[in-house]
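Quick illustration for those who missed Monday's session on complexes.
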Amino acid sequence: MNKKELEQTLVLIKPDALKNSLIGYVLSQLSEVHSGLRFAGAKIVQVNRMLADQHYAEHRGKVFFPALIDYLIGLAHYPNDPWKRRVIAFVFQGPGAIVKIRAIAGPTNPDEAREKSPGCIRALGTIVQLKDASGNVIGERMDNLIHASSTKTEAEREIKLWFKPNDIPPLMRAYPTEVNKEYYYFNDKKLSLSHEPGSVCLLAPGDYVWKSDLEALRLIYKGRPSPCNIETVAAKYLINEERETV
Ligand code: CDP
Ligand code: MG
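Prediction with magnesium ion bound:
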């Protein structure tokens, strides 16, 4: 497969799409016939705060950030039904994957989507007013059904945040992998090489790992500056993990 064929992007079908029964519609818009792209990975995720926070790290501090996290973890749409809080994560692959899916998704703002790109997925989105404790409007949140990576750098970061190499068939992996040789455990935002009460084993010898994750883990373990933090590496290993380690 040539390099163009390997281009990948992360798509998340967000909780408003689940709640409004739009999964079938969204997937048919993204299907190979419409988009020319293939599925390379798929999983159903009960998103925890750590994963949501890492995913939307660039928006930390913005007025809509807390509401955005509540939206991604499913709390906004399923306040009383925790078991219904899910996101479906996909990796799509093929030439121009990032730009093609962004075009099918449409503009971030659902009102703008309706005006400028009728027929796009986000044209079916909703704008929700955000209020403070006294009921004053402090901003708005855009419930726009799907997330789609917007650049190659963002796609690589996001795919490695949500997916392990083994979630993607070997011939469809776009980023270098390496075989791990250590045990790595995670507990209370800390990394260790041996098991402690309550810790989760992230990796065992023989596991295939994103090469960049392994390089980051080695630096983090030595206390040296790393291009990404421990939460970014650990999040995908804690997906649908019952134990509270986040
Ligand atoms: O998702 P996209 O990359 O198009 O937009 P973004 O600017 O990266 O924002 C991420 C998400 O935050 C959006 O998809 C919206 O759900 C939400 N958002 C919001 O609620 N209010 C804004 N003013 C901007 C974004
Ligand atoms: Mg974005």
